[in-house]
């Protein structure tokens, strides 16, 4: 989950600040690569908060 601030173009072609946007990104793959991606995302300009959670696909759970 990422909470961040960004700027967008308005109808009058001027920049407007948009506060407290929330994004949820779901990825599947190698845990080390995913953790590296998380590190890059949380250090991106405008990111106020980032959290990282791991879950299972359920395969192999008895």
Structural class: alpha+beta
Largest sheet: 3 strands, antiparallel
Task: Give the fraction of residues assigned to helices.
Answer: 10-25%
Number of strands: 3
Query: End-to-end distance, in Å?
Result: 29 Å
Task: Sum up the overall morphology in one term.
Answer: elongated
- Average pLDDT confidence is 77
Order of H and E elements: EEHE
Task: List the strand order in the largest sheet.
Answer: 2-1-3
* Number of self-contained structural domains: 1
Number of continuous helical runs: 1
**Low-confidence runs (pLDDT<50, min 5 residues)?**
none
What is the beta-strand fraction? 25-35%
Radius of gyration, whole Å:
16 Å
Strand-helix topology:
Layout: E1 2-9, E2 15-23, H1 31-42, E3 47-50
Antiparallel strand pairs: 1-2, 1-3
Description:
The protein has 62 residues and is of the alpha+beta class. It has one domain (2-50). It is 19% helix and 34% strand. The chain has one helix at residues 31-42; strands spanning 2-9, 15-23, 47-50. Strands 2-1-3 form a three-stranded antiparallel sheet, covered by helices on one side. The protein is elongated and about 55 Å long.
């Amino acid at each position: 989950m990422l909470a961040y601030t960004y700027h967008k173009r308005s109808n009058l072609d001027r920049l407007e600040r948009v506060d407290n946007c929330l994004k949820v990104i779901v990825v599947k793959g190698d845990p080390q690569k995913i953790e590296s991606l998380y590190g890059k995302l949380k250090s991106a300009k405008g990111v106020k908060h980032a959290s990282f959670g791991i879950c299972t696909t359920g395969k192999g759970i008895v």
